[in-house]
Amino acid sequence: MNHYLLPLCLLTVPLAGCQQKKDNQNEKEGQKKPNVLFICVDDLRRELGCYGSVVKTPNIDRLANKGSLFFNHYVQVPTSGASRASMLTGHLPKAKSDLSNEACRTRLSEKPEGEIPETMFHQLRRNGYYTVGIGKISHYADGCLYGYEAPKTDIPELPYSWDEMLFDAGKWGNGWNAFFGYADGTNRQSRKKQVKPYECADVADEGYPDGLTANLAVKKLNELTAKGEPFCLAVGFFKPHLPFTSPKKYWDLYDEASIPLSPMPDIPEGCNTFSLHESGEFNGYLLGEEKASIQKKVSDDYARKLRHAYFACVSYMDAQVGKVLDALEASGQADNTIVILWGDHGWHLGDLRVWGKHTLHETSLSSAFVVKAPGCKQGIKNNRIVSSVDIYPTLMELCKVPLPDGLDGKSFVKLLNNPNDTNWEDAAYSYFRNGVTLRTPEYRFTRYDKKGETITELYQYNQDRTEHKNIAQEKPEVVNKLLPIWEKGITFKY
Fold this sequence. Notes:
8-stranded mixed beta sheet, 4-stranded antiparallel beta sheet
């Protein structure tokens, strides 16, 4: 069997009368629909050159210069599967199961198609778009349901969203092996976690999975643009998710001794450690030189090594994004294509002594977000607060596709041309474990239920967005002002 170009799930499910004729749809609108290129990146915090980071990301920086770069984009859940489920459906979490990586599987998989579209890609498909997914768009690495160490299946995680769901697993054989893969073709599972959390191998871009994903995306993009019909291509890149593995040439972009450490390496004053964690995912890479703990931060030397590895992964991913963007430019379709680049959540790189996501703190909930759309202004640095649930309605408005009832998100299309729109509400809600947090322009207000005890945290931000002190007890007037706004975000009881 050829594993080097293996479409793991090729879906051609009829839409039971929901699919409209593309030609008729275009005639009805009197103009050609914009195409969509949606790029999902795993664990991508706001660590890009365009955000002022030392990380070298010339391709995403170029995209940001042609569109809107959002400095205050927040995900709804700081874990991959749940964050993606909320973004894809346009819904805030409504049950504890919606905070799990299995959120899409629980809500959508192996169920009959209903009148309500399962995701925004399903809605595009119903309205004349040819939809293709490549890589990790929802939770499962190749879009099919199976466990990390189980045999691969062809059961789709999102049964109605795609005309085609593709992935090139290369020498790793399947999606999960590739997701946790090392350059020699092994993976975290096959090596029983006896691996380091990073690797620098002297290989070509295709020596790691994201290089194969970029090549497949370029090939499919060329096919789609040649057809001349409206398409939506969603591409999911793995890096910079653990393990921090990338080709040596991207490591060589950085001098490790010069890499900056976290500006907030310690636990904020008054912060309840219930809001943090012991970096279990990171510590699961058993050959790491040091273990992370909120009791004691890792050494500065090891922190720089790990940040070096993460930065190299971001640069590697950026190069793969660049290949896809270059192909779009060469196709002649760039001016009629909406391009969205979205990080599914942030990641603590030693911030608050944590290595990982899974907190309701700023670093875990804020992620990279860029939108470029035909007819919209270029080079916008947008400081308004937007949420991942807002992407669905925004994309539908840009595509002139009807919006299903009941979405929690709001379209921010106006912000793409007028960042100072006075009608926009600057508030974002996020959820995890037994906590709900509200982000406003100046504050983050969070409450946790710890076995019946209410824990309240309030952080005030300056421009560096660091969390130094929980001021909830010092500023009860602010707590009282924010509490009714926070209560609007209570969508279920724990």
